Structure formats: C-alpha cells, structure tokens
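Hi again,

Forgot to attach this to my earlier email, sorry! This is the prediction with FE2/S2 (inorganic) cluster bound. I've pasted everything inline since the attachment limit keeps bouncing my files.
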Amino acid sequence: MSSITVNVIDRDGTRTEGVEWNSSESLMEALTRNKFPILATCGGNASCSTCHCYLGASAATATANSPIGDEEEDVLDMLDDTRHEDSRLTCQVEWSEELNGAEVTIAPEW
Ligand code: FES
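Structure tokens for the complex follow:
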C-alpha cells in the first residue's frame, strides 16, 4: 500500500500538515480516519454533501482519475454559495500520487 500526505485546513482555520492518505482510501476516508469533522452521512455515496471540501486550484487539476461525475455534480449544484470552483465531494476523490502535498480545506457546514 502506498501513501501520500495532504495538508488540511479545518473550519476554524487550523492547518494540519502531513495528514496521511493511504492508496486504499478515498479522500473522505482518509479525513475521517484522521478525525477531521467530516460526517459522511451517506457513507460515501455522493448524496449527502457532508464531505464537501475545497481542493485548491492545483489539486483540482490533479484529480483526472476521479473527475466530477453526474451524481456529484447534482449535489454540488445544490450547495449554492458554498460551492467554489475547486469544490469536491471528497468521497468521490480517489487517491493519486499527484495529490501529494495538496491543500484540502474543509467547507463550511450548511
Ligand atoms: S460522504 Fe456523502 S456525499 Fe460524500
């Protein structure tokens, strides 16, 4: 199993560097395993939006292996003003070496 690390910015602005993300996990699974406040109510099915994060412009382009699908697009569409260009449902973001060092900002609660 391979792993990379990402930097996570919590809702209160706290930045945690070196958060481990294993290749067997979605980004949501890595965040919840590391005890970040991600509810993941739907269990990773792209239907609840509680795993919403911002990936930053460079990381957003590094997710070519897990582009936004129709279901994710529909859910992101409902977020209105909290949706940004780099918004993703992290349960739909697959591990990729190119995401090593990415900045992941946890989106506000809705
Ligand atoms: S965990 Fe529900 S949308 Fe990602």
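The first strand starts at residue 3 and ends at 9. The pocket of FE2/S2 (inorganic) cluster is lined by residues 28, 40-42, 44-51, 89, 91 (CB under 6 Å).

That should be everything now.

G.
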